[in-house]
Amino acid sequence: MADQGEVKLLKTWSSLFGLRVVWALKLKGIPYESVDEDLTNKSDLLLQYNPVHTKVPVLIHNGKPICESLVILEYIDETWSQNPPSLLPQDPIQRASARFWAKFMDEKALPSMWQAFTKKGREQEEGLASIAEKLKLLEAELEGKKFFGGEEIGIPDFALGWLVNLVPVFEEILGLKIVDEERHPSLSEWSRRISDIRVIEESWPPRDKLVTKWAAIRDHFLATARASSG
Amino acid sequence: MEEVKLLGWWMSPFSRRVELALKLKGVGYEYIEQDLANKSQLLLEYNPVHKKVPVLVHNGKTMAESLVILEYIDETWPNNPILPRNPYEKAMARFWAQFIEEKCNGGLWKIMWCKDEEERGRLVEEASHCFRTLEGELKGNKFFGGDEIGMVDIAANFIGYWLGVVQEVSGMELVTRDKFPVLCKWMDEFVEHSVVKETLPPRDKLHAEFEARLGAPSWKY
Questions:
Q1: Chain B neighbors of A68, CB-CB under 8 A
Q2: pTM value?
Q3: Topology of domain A92-216, per CATH?
Q4: What is the CATH number of the domain that holds B36?
Q5: Inter-chain touch A68–B98, beta carbons under 8 Å
Q6: Which parts of the sequence belong to the GST C-terminal domain (chain B) (predicted)?
Q7: Helix axes A16-27, A69-79, angle to 10 degrees
Protein backbone atom coordinates (compact mmCIF):
# COMPACT_ATOMS: atom_id res chain seq x y z
CA MET A 1 0.00 0.00 0.00
CA ALA A 2 1.37 3.44 -0.89
CA ASP A 3 2.30 5.84 1.91
CA GLN A 4 -0.97 7.24 3.17
CA GLY A 5 0.48 10.31 4.82
CA GLU A 6 -0.68 11.71 8.12
CA VAL A 7 -4.43 11.64 8.77
CA LYS A 8 -6.08 13.40 11.67
CA LEU A 9 -9.82 13.61 12.37
CA LEU A 10 -11.35 16.35 14.51
CA LYS A 11 -14.76 15.28 15.79
CA THR A 12 -16.74 14.97 18.99
CA TRP A 13 -17.61 11.79 20.89
CA SER A 14 -21.22 12.00 19.72
CA SER A 15 -21.20 13.88 16.38
CA LEU A 16 -23.29 12.00 13.84
CA PHE A 17 -21.37 13.75 11.07
CA GLY A 18 -18.02 12.75 12.55
CA LEU A 19 -19.18 9.15 12.85
CA ARG A 20 -19.62 8.96 9.06
CA VAL A 21 -15.95 9.79 8.57
CA VAL A 22 -14.88 7.28 11.26
CA TRP A 23 -16.75 4.56 9.35
CA ALA A 24 -15.12 5.50 6.04
CA LEU A 25 -11.61 5.56 7.50
CA LYS A 26 -12.07 2.28 9.38
CA LEU A 27 -13.77 0.44 6.50
CA LYS A 28 -10.95 1.42 4.18
CA GLY A 29 -8.33 0.54 6.79
CA ILE A 30 -6.83 4.03 6.88
CA PRO A 31 -4.87 4.69 10.07
CA TYR A 32 -5.70 8.04 11.64
CA GLU A 33 -5.38 10.05 14.81
CA SER A 34 -8.68 10.97 16.39
CA VAL A 35 -9.09 14.25 18.28
CA ASP A 36 -12.32 14.75 20.26
CA GLU A 37 -13.30 18.39 20.47
CA ASP A 38 -15.22 20.22 23.17
CA LEU A 39 -17.48 22.49 21.14
CA THR A 40 -18.15 24.72 24.15
CA ASN A 41 -14.42 25.44 24.18
CA LYS A 42 -13.21 25.14 20.60
CA SER A 43 -9.56 24.32 20.20
CA ASP A 44 -7.11 26.49 18.28
CA LEU A 45 -6.73 23.53 15.94
CA LEU A 46 -10.42 23.56 15.05
CA LEU A 47 -10.55 27.33 14.64
CA GLN A 48 -7.48 27.21 12.43
CA TYR A 49 -8.59 24.31 10.27
CA ASN A 50 -12.27 25.20 9.91
CA PRO A 51 -12.37 28.98 10.15
CA VAL A 52 -15.48 29.21 7.97
CA HIS A 53 -17.84 27.03 10.02
CA THR A 54 -15.80 26.18 13.18
CA LYS A 55 -17.55 22.80 13.15
CA VAL A 56 -16.62 19.16 13.19
CA PRO A 57 -15.76 16.93 11.50
CA VAL A 58 -12.54 18.18 9.96
CA LEU A 59 -10.20 15.77 8.23
CA ILE A 60 -6.59 16.90 8.13
CA HIS A 61 -4.51 15.04 5.55
CA ASN A 62 -0.82 15.89 5.49
CA GLY A 63 -1.63 19.16 7.22
CA LYS A 64 -4.38 20.16 4.75
CA PRO A 65 -7.93 20.42 6.13
CA ILE A 66 -11.13 19.23 4.48
CA CYS A 67 -14.50 20.19 6.01
CA GLU A 68 -18.15 19.12 5.56
CA SER A 69 -18.74 15.40 6.05
CA LEU A 70 -20.03 14.54 2.57
CA VAL A 71 -17.13 16.43 0.98
CA ILE A 72 -14.75 14.53 3.27
CA LEU A 73 -16.28 11.17 2.31
CA GLU A 74 -15.79 11.86 -1.41
CA TYR A 75 -12.23 13.01 -0.74
CA ILE A 76 -11.45 9.80 1.16
CA ASP A 77 -12.97 7.70 -1.62
CA GLU A 78 -10.90 9.45 -4.31
CA THR A 79 -7.64 9.66 -2.38
CA TRP A 80 -7.72 6.05 -1.16
CA SER A 81 -9.39 4.63 -4.24
CA GLN A 82 -7.15 1.55 -4.01
CA ASN A 83 -8.58 0.64 -0.61
CA PRO A 84 -11.87 -1.21 -0.83
CA PRO A 85 -14.73 -0.67 -0.42
CA SER A 86 -15.61 2.04 -2.92
CA LEU A 87 -17.90 4.49 -1.20
CA LEU A 88 -19.70 5.36 -4.44
CA PRO A 89 -20.80 3.08 -7.31
CA GLN A 90 -18.66 3.00 -10.45
CA ASP A 91 -21.55 3.66 -12.84
CA PRO A 92 -22.07 7.45 -13.28
CA ILE A 93 -25.89 7.22 -13.19
CA GLN A 94 -25.77 5.24 -9.95
CA ARG A 95 -23.25 7.71 -8.57
CA ALA A 96 -25.65 10.55 -9.34
CA SER A 97 -28.41 8.64 -7.59
CA ALA A 98 -26.20 7.98 -4.54
CA ARG A 99 -25.28 11.68 -4.30
CA PHE A 100 -28.96 12.64 -4.74
CA TRP A 101 -29.99 10.46 -1.82
CA ALA A 102 -27.11 11.58 0.41
CA LYS A 103 -28.28 15.16 -0.17
CA PHE A 104 -31.85 14.13 0.61
CA MET A 105 -30.77 12.57 3.93
CA ASP A 106 -28.99 15.78 4.98
CA GLU A 107 -31.22 18.46 3.48
CA LYS A 108 -34.66 16.90 3.95
CA ALA A 109 -34.71 13.93 6.33
CA LEU A 110 -32.41 15.24 9.05
CA PRO A 111 -34.02 18.71 9.33
CA SER A 112 -37.45 17.06 9.59
CA MET A 113 -36.16 14.86 12.40
CA TRP A 114 -34.62 17.90 14.08
CA GLN A 115 -37.94 19.74 14.01
CA ALA A 116 -39.82 16.74 15.40
CA PHE A 117 -37.27 16.41 18.20
CA THR A 118 -36.68 20.03 19.25
CA LYS A 119 -40.24 21.36 19.07
CA LYS A 120 -43.53 20.67 20.75
CA GLY A 121 -47.21 21.16 19.95
CA ARG A 122 -48.18 21.97 16.38
CA GLU A 123 -44.60 22.51 15.21
CA GLN A 124 -43.62 19.09 16.51
CA GLU A 125 -46.63 17.50 14.81
CA GLU A 126 -45.55 19.08 11.54
CA GLY A 127 -42.03 17.75 12.07
CA LEU A 128 -43.33 14.27 12.79
CA ALA A 129 -45.53 14.33 9.69
CA SER A 130 -42.55 15.54 7.67
CA ILE A 131 -40.17 12.82 8.88
CA ALA A 132 -42.88 10.20 8.32
CA GLU A 133 -43.18 11.37 4.71
CA LYS A 134 -39.39 11.31 4.22
CA LEU A 135 -39.14 7.82 5.69
CA LYS A 136 -41.83 6.63 3.29
CA LEU A 137 -39.73 7.88 0.36
CA LEU A 138 -36.59 6.28 1.78
CA GLU A 139 -38.42 3.00 2.38
CA ALA A 140 -39.57 2.98 -1.26
CA GLU A 141 -36.08 3.75 -2.54
CA LEU A 142 -34.49 1.03 -0.44
CA GLU A 143 -36.95 -1.71 -1.38
CA GLY A 144 -35.22 -4.73 -2.91
CA LYS A 145 -31.75 -3.30 -2.23
CA LYS A 146 -29.20 -4.25 0.38
CA PHE A 147 -27.94 -0.71 0.76
CA PHE A 148 -28.90 2.65 -0.73
CA GLY A 149 -25.86 2.34 -2.96
CA GLY A 150 -26.88 -1.16 -4.11
CA GLU A 151 -24.91 -4.25 -3.16
CA GLU A 152 -22.29 -2.33 -1.21
CA ILE A 153 -22.49 0.18 1.62
CA GLY A 154 -21.78 3.70 0.44
CA ILE A 155 -22.09 7.40 1.05
CA PRO A 156 -25.92 7.58 1.18
CA ASP A 157 -25.93 4.79 3.80
CA PHE A 158 -23.38 6.73 5.87
CA ALA A 159 -25.56 9.83 5.52
CA LEU A 160 -28.50 8.00 7.09
CA GLY A 161 -26.45 6.35 9.86
CA TRP A 162 -28.21 8.48 12.49
CA LEU A 163 -31.39 6.54 11.79
CA VAL A 164 -29.77 3.46 13.28
CA ASN A 165 -28.37 4.75 16.56
CA LEU A 166 -29.96 8.17 17.20
CA VAL A 167 -33.58 7.60 16.25
CA PRO A 168 -34.03 4.94 18.98
CA VAL A 169 -32.60 7.51 21.45
CA PHE A 170 -35.08 10.14 20.18
CA GLU A 171 -37.90 7.62 20.41
CA GLU A 172 -37.02 6.88 24.03
CA ILE A 173 -36.90 10.57 24.96
CA LEU A 174 -40.08 11.50 23.08
CA GLY A 175 -41.99 8.35 24.02
CA LEU A 176 -42.94 7.88 20.35
CA LYS A 177 -42.23 5.40 17.60
CA ILE A 178 -40.71 6.95 14.48
CA VAL A 179 -39.39 3.87 12.68
CA ASP A 180 -41.16 0.56 12.96
CA GLU A 181 -40.96 -2.86 11.38
CA GLU A 182 -44.51 -2.69 10.02
CA ARG A 183 -44.28 0.60 8.13
CA HIS A 184 -40.57 0.35 7.40
CA PRO A 185 -39.56 -3.27 6.80
CA SER A 186 -36.73 -2.41 4.40
CA LEU A 187 -35.31 0.35 6.61
CA SER A 188 -35.52 -1.94 9.66
CA GLU A 189 -33.67 -4.70 7.81
CA TRP A 190 -31.13 -2.16 6.53
CA SER A 191 -30.57 -0.91 10.12
CA ARG A 192 -29.78 -4.44 11.27
CA ARG A 193 -27.45 -4.92 8.30
CA ILE A 194 -25.61 -1.69 9.14
CA SER A 195 -25.28 -2.66 12.80
CA ASP A 196 -23.84 -6.04 11.81
CA ILE A 197 -20.83 -4.41 10.19
CA ARG A 198 -18.05 -4.82 12.76
CA VAL A 199 -16.34 -1.43 12.46
CA ILE A 200 -19.73 0.28 12.66
CA GLU A 201 -20.86 -1.79 15.60
CA GLU A 202 -17.69 -1.01 17.56
CA SER A 203 -17.88 2.74 16.79
CA TRP A 204 -21.31 3.61 18.19
CA PRO A 205 -21.12 6.28 20.91
CA PRO A 206 -22.42 4.95 24.27
CA ARG A 207 -26.22 4.94 24.27
CA ASP A 208 -26.76 6.08 27.85
CA LYS A 209 -24.51 9.09 27.31
CA LEU A 210 -26.45 9.89 24.12
CA VAL A 211 -29.78 9.76 25.96
CA THR A 212 -28.47 12.19 28.59
CA LYS A 213 -27.03 14.52 26.00
CA TRP A 214 -30.03 14.60 23.68
CA ALA A 215 -32.57 14.90 26.52
CA ALA A 216 -30.67 18.01 27.62
CA ILE A 217 -30.72 19.36 24.06
CA ARG A 218 -34.48 18.93 23.81
CA ASP A 219 -34.98 20.60 27.19
CA HIS A 220 -32.81 23.51 26.08
CA PHE A 221 -34.79 24.06 22.88
CA LEU A 222 -38.13 23.84 24.64
CA ALA A 223 -36.95 26.28 27.33
CA THR A 224 -35.69 28.74 24.67
CA ALA A 225 -39.03 28.53 22.87
CA ARG A 226 -40.92 29.19 26.11
CA ALA A 227 -38.64 32.16 26.91
CA SER A 228 -39.08 33.75 23.49
CA SER A 229 -42.85 33.30 23.50
CA GLY A 230 -43.03 35.12 26.87
CA MET B 1 -26.20 8.12 -30.29
CA GLU B 2 -26.33 10.37 -27.24
CA GLU B 3 -29.69 11.71 -26.22
CA VAL B 4 -29.62 14.51 -23.70
CA LYS B 5 -32.72 16.34 -22.50
CA LEU B 6 -33.06 19.03 -19.88
CA LEU B 7 -36.28 19.91 -18.10
CA GLY B 8 -35.89 23.49 -16.94
CA TRP B 9 -37.57 26.80 -16.20
CA TRP B 10 -36.40 30.04 -17.78
CA MET B 11 -36.20 31.86 -14.46
CA SER B 12 -34.53 29.12 -12.40
CA PRO B 13 -30.84 29.67 -11.63
CA PHE B 14 -30.67 25.93 -10.86
CA SER B 15 -31.71 24.79 -14.32
CA ARG B 16 -29.52 27.54 -15.86
CA ARG B 17 -26.52 26.02 -14.04
CA VAL B 18 -27.03 22.79 -15.92
CA GLU B 19 -27.44 24.61 -19.25
CA LEU B 20 -24.20 26.45 -18.58
CA ALA B 21 -22.28 23.24 -17.88
CA LEU B 22 -23.65 21.53 -21.00
CA LYS B 23 -22.80 24.54 -23.17
CA LEU B 24 -19.30 24.90 -21.70
CA LYS B 25 -18.67 21.31 -22.75
CA GLY B 26 -20.34 21.63 -26.14
CA VAL B 27 -22.92 18.95 -25.33
CA GLY B 28 -26.03 19.13 -27.50
CA TYR B 29 -29.34 18.79 -25.68
CA GLU B 30 -33.06 19.19 -26.10
CA TYR B 31 -34.46 21.80 -23.74
CA ILE B 32 -37.99 21.28 -22.44
CA GLU B 33 -39.43 24.35 -20.71
CA GLN B 34 -41.61 23.50 -17.72
CA ASP B 35 -44.68 25.30 -16.43
CA LEU B 36 -44.15 25.07 -12.69
CA ALA B 37 -47.64 26.35 -11.90
CA ASN B 38 -48.98 23.39 -13.79
CA LYS B 39 -46.42 20.60 -13.45
CA SER B 40 -46.23 18.20 -16.37
CA GLN B 41 -46.61 14.45 -16.10
CA LEU B 42 -43.07 14.23 -17.40
CA LEU B 43 -41.66 16.31 -14.53
CA LEU B 44 -43.67 14.42 -11.91
CA GLU B 45 -42.47 11.13 -13.37
CA TYR B 46 -38.84 12.16 -13.73
CA ASN B 47 -38.50 13.87 -10.34
CA PRO B 48 -41.14 12.30 -8.10
CA VAL B 49 -39.21 13.10 -4.90
CA HIS B 50 -38.89 16.87 -5.31
CA LYS B 51 -41.05 17.64 -8.38
CA LYS B 52 -38.61 20.38 -9.32
CA VAL B 53 -36.33 21.47 -12.12
CA PRO B 54 -33.72 20.87 -13.32
CA VAL B 55 -33.96 17.26 -14.40
CA LEU B 56 -31.35 15.88 -16.78
CA VAL B 57 -32.24 12.89 -18.94
CA HIS B 58 -29.32 11.08 -20.55
CA ASN B 59 -30.14 8.14 -22.79
CA GLY B 60 -33.40 7.70 -20.92
CA LYS B 61 -31.85 7.80 -17.43
CA THR B 62 -32.97 10.68 -15.20
CA MET B 63 -31.31 12.65 -12.44
CA ALA B 64 -32.16 15.67 -10.31
CA GLU B 65 -30.49 18.29 -8.06
CA SER B 66 -28.34 20.76 -10.00
CA LEU B 67 -25.04 20.22 -8.13
CA VAL B 68 -25.43 16.44 -8.49
CA ILE B 69 -26.13 16.90 -12.20
CA LEU B 70 -23.03 19.10 -12.59
CA GLU B 71 -20.86 16.31 -11.14
CA TYR B 72 -22.45 13.80 -13.53
CA ILE B 73 -21.86 16.11 -16.52
CA ASP B 74 -18.21 16.58 -15.56
CA GLU B 75 -17.67 12.82 -15.20
CA THR B 76 -19.49 11.92 -18.41
CA TRP B 77 -18.03 14.67 -20.66
CA PRO B 78 -14.53 15.24 -19.26
CA ASN B 79 -13.51 17.90 -21.84
CA ASN B 80 -13.37 21.48 -20.49
CA PRO B 81 -13.48 20.25 -16.88
CA ILE B 82 -15.50 22.24 -14.36
CA LEU B 83 -13.99 20.47 -11.36
CA PRO B 84 -10.27 20.23 -10.61
CA ARG B 85 -8.74 16.78 -11.09
CA ASN B 86 -6.66 16.92 -7.89
CA PRO B 87 -8.73 15.39 -5.04
CA TYR B 88 -7.87 18.14 -2.56
CA GLU B 89 -8.72 20.97 -4.92
CA LYS B 90 -11.87 19.10 -5.93
CA ALA B 91 -12.85 18.86 -2.26
CA MET B 92 -12.31 22.62 -1.90
CA ALA B 93 -14.53 23.30 -4.93
CA ARG B 94 -17.28 21.09 -3.50
CA PHE B 95 -16.94 22.83 -0.12
CA TRP B 96 -17.39 26.29 -1.68
CA ALA B 97 -20.27 25.19 -3.90
CA GLN B 98 -21.99 23.89 -0.75
CA PHE B 99 -21.18 27.13 1.10
CA ILE B 100 -22.71 29.21 -1.68
CA GLU B 101 -25.83 27.06 -1.73
CA GLU B 102 -26.39 26.92 2.01
CA LYS B 103 -25.03 30.17 3.37
CA CYS B 104 -25.07 32.69 0.53
CA ASN B 105 -28.12 31.65 -1.49
CA GLY B 106 -29.85 30.30 1.62
CA GLY B 107 -29.22 33.59 3.41
CA LEU B 108 -30.49 35.66 0.47
CA TRP B 109 -33.64 33.60 0.23
CA LYS B 110 -34.47 34.22 3.90
CA ILE B 111 -33.88 37.97 3.45
CA MET B 112 -36.09 38.11 0.36
CA TRP B 113 -39.05 36.67 2.27
CA CYS B 114 -38.49 38.25 5.67
CA LYS B 115 -41.24 40.72 6.53
CA ASP B 116 -39.87 41.76 9.95
CA GLU B 117 -37.52 44.75 9.69
CA GLU B 118 -35.37 43.89 12.72
CA GLU B 119 -35.00 40.25 11.71
CA ARG B 120 -34.16 41.31 8.15
CA GLY B 121 -31.41 43.58 9.48
CA ARG B 122 -29.92 40.68 11.40
CA LEU B 123 -30.14 38.39 8.36
CA VAL B 124 -28.47 41.00 6.14
CA GLU B 125 -25.57 41.27 8.58
CA GLU B 126 -25.22 37.50 8.69
CA ALA B 127 -25.33 37.28 4.90
CA SER B 128 -22.77 40.10 4.57
CA HIS B 129 -20.37 38.06 6.61
CA CYS B 130 -20.89 35.07 4.30
CA PHE B 131 -20.33 37.18 1.19
CA ARG B 132 -17.16 38.60 2.71
CA THR B 133 -15.92 35.04 3.25
CA LEU B 134 -16.83 34.09 -0.30
CA GLU B 135 -15.15 37.16 -1.75
CA GLY B 136 -11.94 36.10 -0.01
CA GLU B 137 -11.94 32.89 -2.02
CA LEU B 138 -11.36 34.70 -5.32
CA LYS B 139 -7.72 35.24 -4.22
CA GLY B 140 -6.90 37.60 -7.09
CA ASN B 141 -8.27 35.23 -9.75
CA LYS B 142 -10.67 36.16 -12.51
CA PHE B 143 -13.00 33.33 -11.51
CA PHE B 144 -13.38 30.99 -8.54
CA GLY B 145 -12.17 28.30 -10.94
CA GLY B 146 -9.02 30.32 -11.74
CA ASP B 147 -8.60 31.60 -15.30
CA GLU B 148 -11.67 29.74 -16.41
CA ILE B 149 -15.14 29.20 -15.02
CA GLY B 150 -15.59 26.17 -12.78
CA MET B 151 -18.16 24.47 -10.60
CA VAL B 152 -17.97 27.19 -7.92
CA ASP B 153 -18.64 29.98 -10.45
CA ILE B 154 -21.55 27.99 -11.87
CA ALA B 155 -22.92 27.40 -8.36
CA ALA B 156 -22.64 31.16 -7.73
CA ASN B 157 -24.72 32.09 -10.79
CA PHE B 158 -27.57 33.50 -8.69
CA ILE B 159 -25.09 35.87 -7.07
CA GLY B 160 -23.53 36.62 -10.44
CA TYR B 161 -26.72 37.79 -12.14
CA TRP B 162 -30.03 37.24 -10.38
CA LEU B 163 -28.94 39.07 -7.23
CA GLY B 164 -28.45 42.33 -9.10
CA VAL B 165 -32.06 42.21 -10.29
CA VAL B 166 -33.37 41.26 -6.82
CA GLN B 167 -31.49 44.16 -5.25
CA GLU B 168 -32.88 46.56 -7.85
CA VAL B 169 -36.45 45.40 -7.28
CA SER B 170 -36.32 45.18 -3.48
CA GLY B 171 -34.00 48.08 -2.75
CA MET B 172 -31.80 45.71 -0.76
CA GLU B 173 -28.21 46.95 -0.67
CA LEU B 174 -26.27 43.91 0.37
CA VAL B 175 -23.66 43.34 -2.33
CA THR B 176 -22.67 46.80 -3.57
CA ARG B 177 -19.58 47.91 -5.45
CA ASP B 178 -18.22 49.94 -2.58
CA LYS B 179 -18.73 47.19 -0.01
CA PHE B 180 -17.68 44.24 -2.20
CA PRO B 181 -15.45 45.54 -5.02
CA VAL B 182 -13.77 42.20 -5.66
CA LEU B 183 -17.00 40.20 -5.76
CA CYS B 184 -18.63 42.81 -8.03
CA LYS B 185 -15.66 42.56 -10.39
CA TRP B 186 -16.23 38.80 -10.49
CA MET B 187 -19.92 39.44 -11.26
CA ASP B 188 -18.88 41.67 -14.20
CA GLU B 189 -16.56 38.96 -15.57
CA PHE B 190 -19.18 36.27 -15.04
CA VAL B 191 -21.98 37.96 -16.98
CA GLU B 192 -19.60 38.98 -19.77
CA HIS B 193 -18.33 35.42 -20.28
CA SER B 194 -19.31 34.36 -23.81
CA VAL B 195 -20.98 31.11 -22.78
CA VAL B 196 -22.57 32.41 -19.57
CA LYS B 197 -24.22 35.20 -21.60
CA GLU B 198 -26.16 32.57 -23.56
CA THR B 199 -27.67 31.14 -20.39
CA LEU B 200 -28.87 34.31 -18.69
CA PRO B 201 -32.61 35.02 -18.68
CA PRO B 202 -33.58 38.41 -20.22
CA ARG B 203 -33.08 41.08 -17.58
CA ASP B 204 -36.33 42.99 -18.15
CA LYS B 205 -38.38 39.80 -17.99
CA LEU B 206 -36.57 38.78 -14.78
CA HIS B 207 -37.12 42.23 -13.30
CA ALA B 208 -40.85 42.14 -14.02
CA GLU B 209 -41.17 38.63 -12.61
CA PHE B 210 -39.37 39.48 -9.35
CA GLU B 211 -41.40 42.65 -9.02
CA ALA B 212 -44.59 40.64 -9.20
CA ARG B 213 -43.41 37.89 -6.84
CA LEU B 214 -41.50 39.75 -4.15
CA GLY B 215 -44.66 41.61 -3.18
CA ALA B 216 -46.39 38.33 -2.35
CA PRO B 217 -46.25 36.68 1.10
CA SER B 218 -44.23 33.73 -0.13
CA TRP B 219 -42.58 32.30 -3.20
CA LYS B 220 -45.02 30.52 -5.46
CA TYR B 221 -43.27 27.36 -6.61
A1: 94-95, 98
A2: 0.96
A3: Glutathione S-transferase Yfyf (Class Pi); Chain A, domain 2 (1.20.1050)
A4: 3.40.30.10
A5: yes
A6: 86-218
A7: 10
